[in-house]
Design a protein that fits this description.
Layout (H helix, E strand, L loop, with lengths): L1 E5 L2 H12 L7 E5 L6 H11 L14 E4 L5 E5 L14 H5 L4 E5 L13 E7 L5 E7 L4
Parallel strand pairs: 2-5, 2-6, 4-5
Antiparallel strand pairs: 1-7, 3-4, 6-7
Helix pairs in contact: 1-2
Length: about 140
């Protein structure tokens, strides 16, 4: 596990951009943290580093936003996903089994049968703009 201490939004973006260099097509990243922790901001940094130059905002109501770049980025916000929803029926499997990078906010809303994530990023607020960011690669001690 790697831990970063961010003291500003720009430091959080820089951390996300550095992290993005480790991502490969097919990776799924679970983003965890309370409301307002900076999950969408982190996604913005990853998308930017992977070549997307447009707006990145929360897909809370759309469930998924797609961003073009060197590697496609599928940004999902599952906060409003109903418990027990069939992720295949609503089309999320198309993204999860695709060749892009999936950034998934509120991953605990996915049904338990989903295969393990490649990465887990936890954002913990430690002040107004300060965050502790923990990055863990799954399958590695």
């Amino acid at each position: 596990m790697t831990e970063f201490h961010s003291h500003s939004e720009s430091e959080t973006l820089a951390c996300a951009e550095t992290f993005a260099a480790k991502l490969q097509s097919g990776d799924a990243v679970a983003l965890k943290g309370p409301l307002g922790a900076g999950k969408t901001l982190f996604c913005r940094g990853v998308a930017r580093a992977l070549g997307h130059h447009g707006v990145v905002n929360s897909p809370t109501y759309a469930l998924v936003h797609e961003y073009a770049g060197r590697i496609p980025v599928y940004h999902m916000d599952l906060y409003r996903l109903a418990p027990g929803a069939d992720w295949e029926e609503i089309g999320l499997n198309h993204y999860l089994e695709g060749d892009g990078v999936c950034l998934i906010e509120w991953p605990e809303r996915l049904p338990g049968h989903f295969s393990p994530f490649t990465w887990e990023v936890e954002l913990e607020p430690s002040g107004d703009t300060s965050r502790i960011i923990r990055i863990r690669k799954h399958g590695v001690g």
